[in-house]
Amino acid sequence: MPGSFFDTNVLLYLASSETEKADRAEQLLGDGGTVSVQVLNEFANVARRRMALSWVETRSFLASVRGLLDIVPVTLEVHETGLVLAERYGFSVYDALIVAAALISDCDVLWSEDFQHGLRIDRRLRVVNPFHPAQRASS
């Protein structure tokens, strides 16, 4: 989906055994979009520690994601913008870095269940929980 940025939790559901959420994540990612290197790193950490995926499985999954989505590096601009957003909105630094990468990438939707559904950030980015009941009904 042009203009879409994906948070780590959407990727995690794609790799999970929660069929309904995995299907929804697959549908959204199939339309394209953007993730940051930070999101890829967070996925790798959770995949290895909590989901017990092997290194081969983790690398294979991440290679597939990199083939589907645009990847944004964690740059000094992302870092500085993230700190401003963390202060302004009260986000954790790590969440603010994801928001910063989405804004810098000119995305208009951040798919995440970790932020308030419908939240508008800097009048340019709207947070949408892909698993929110109202969102599922409109799909």
Would you give an account of this structure?
By secondary structure, the protein is α/β, with parallel strands linked by helices. The chain has a single domain (4-137), classed as Rossmann fold, CATH 3.40.50.1010. The protein is built from 7 helices and 6 strands, in the order βααβααβααβββα. The chain has helices at 8-14, 19-30, 37-49, 55-68, 76-89, 93-104, 133-137, and strands at residues 4-6, 34-36, 70-72, 109-111, 120-121, 125-128. A 4-stranded mixed β-sheet has the order 1-4-6-5. It has a two-stranded parallel ribbon with strand order 2-3. The chain is globular and about 40 Å long. It starts with a strand and ends with a helix. 30% of the residues are buried. The model has no long low-confidence stretch (mean pLDDT 92).
Please give the CATH class: Alpha Beta
Mean pLDDT: 92
The helix content, as a percent range, equals: 55-70%
What is the CATH superfamily? 5'-nuclease
Spatial order of strands in the largest sheet? 1-4-6-5
Low-confidence stretches: none
Query: Which structural class should the secondary elements be placed in?
Result: alpha/beta
What form results from the Cα inertia axes? globular
DSSP, total strands: 6
